[in-house]
Amino acid sequence: MSREHFTTLGGFDSRIHDAYIEVDLCLRANTSELPVLYSEEARALLGKECFTVNEDLQDWQGRAAFFGKWVGKTPKNDDYLSFAKELLNN
User: Fold this and answer.
1) CA separation (Å) from 79 to 50, 53, 70, 74, 83?
2) Rounded to an integer, what distance in angstroms lies between the CA atom of residue 81 and that of residue 90?
3) Are 19 and 60 in contact (CB under 8 A)?
4) Backbone dihedral angles phi then psi of residue 28, each to the nearest 5 degrees
5) HEC readout, the chain
6) Which of 23, 26, 21, 29 has the alpha carbon at shortest distance from 53?
7) What pLDDT, in 10s, does the model give residues 31-67?
8) What CA–CA distance (Å, rounded) separates 61 from 66?
């Protein structure tokens, strides 16, 4: 994602748990029809903010904020295991 699109989307949502901030950003880009491309060589530095991995399971508010924001708005695949097996076989 370009820096311009990142800024247009308002950056990362501070209410969302660290583990979901990138997913949230990509979903917002998708709903705004802004391109998100995967590149193995891509690197990002976030100069003003620092996100740390928080494995504290008590940090439920950030997780709930993500799922509450996107519930019913993303495609769902009830047969996830079959879907995942296809991905792993590629």
Assistant:
1) 36, 30, 20, 15, 6
2) 15
3) no
4) -65, -40
5) CCHHHHHHCCCCCCCCCHHHHHHHHHHHHHHCCCCCCCCCCCCCCCCCCCCCCCCCCCCHHHHHHHHHHHCCCCCCCCCHHHHHHHHHHC
6) 21
7) 999 988 877 777 665 555 555 555 555 677 888 888 8
8) 9
